[in-house]
Amino acid sequence: MMKAFFALLAICWSFYTATAQNISGTWSGELNTGVMKLGFVLHIDNDSTCRAVSPDQGNKEVAGQVAYLSADSILVKIPSLVVLYGARLVNDELRGTFVQGLSALPLTLKRGQLLRQRPQNPQPPFPYHTEDVTFINEQTGATLAGTLACPNEAKTVLLMVTGSGRQNRDEEIMGHKPFAVIADYLARHGIATLRYDDRGEGQSVGGEIKNATTKDLAQDAQAGIRWLRQSGRFSKVGILGHSEGGMIAFMLGAQDEVDFIVSLAGPGVQGDTLLLAQNKAIDAESSKYLTIAQIRANVARQKSPWLDFFIDYNPQPDIARIACPVMALNGSKDSQVVASQNLPAIRRSLPDNKQHLIKEYPELNHLFQHATTGLPAEYGDIEETFSPEVLQEMVTWIQQIK
Prior knowledge:
The protein is of the alpha/beta class. Helix content is 27%, strand content 28%. The strands form two sheets. The chain has an eight-stranded antiparallel β-barrel with strand order 1-2-3-4-5-6-7-8. A hairpin with a 2-residue loop joins strand 7 and strand 8. Helix 3 crosses helix 4 and helix 5 packs across helix 7. The longest helix has 17 residues. It is globular and about 70 Å long. The termini are far apart. 41% of the residues are buried. The N terminus is likely disordered.
């Protein structure tokens, strides 16, 4: 880190003083972390203040400081993120280095906003009713805020549960809003949904956040299911979970809380086994000799209650207790929840039911986008948010549930 920091200072010392008129304004680009590409937008307001935002990480502006600014050079500090960005203006581009913690990465910014093509994002007016609602997890005091999308006379509703990490009700990632896309499609086909901001995210408040585990978050989902039942508006209440949300769906299914389950890339094996396969799928060369013991040692060093629970939790006993119909889907190019490992485990664990649908879709990644490599680095570059054929098959399956 010190080598990168002094290199950055050397760049700064080479700057010459001049007016700042050529650099002020909005600049944007993509930061390649090696695992994924993250959009980065820098608003240079004047010679002392700036604002930074990542459209791929919640689109929240963070205040920054302009430590140096000239006609062709800049040094920006973002204290809350422990970030330094130093760059020089070359051919109307800011070419520089983004330093955070132990990482020093090249980052080139161009003038203007970062434009993402997301053709599936729903646009009003909508041919169905939406309303903002809240429900409370009485055990923890968490108040969850969400959106109920409800077509006229809908009798079937799904609670939508996001994947790991704090996410908003649209499960927004890399400029994509997969839950908004799914909810819109289902509503246009007569199926209601309730999607909500995760605990501590968006408009949801209260409850333990730092030390919350998947089991704790399952209580939030349980509160949402019970709120939907108590509303008296629906005859069938199901759950749709993505990734960790699929794990939560299995937990609640084992408790007979729901009438049916849609699991999108939900885990079917124990967390340590899943993480080993994930590491090898994302970076086969560096993970060639990685073992479960090493995975567990790495997790122990992080002292994270969420990770501690995750690596020890085996979903198979819960899956074996599920009596309701289950639709479990994965993409063949999913590098985070590997389909060839997890779908067979789900199929083996589930009790027999003619209404179950366990399916692997070719060419789809963890977000159910048509992908080339399936690696997280692709997510933001793909314009498609969610596979149309999966949307159609979900509607067909939900409508035939007895």
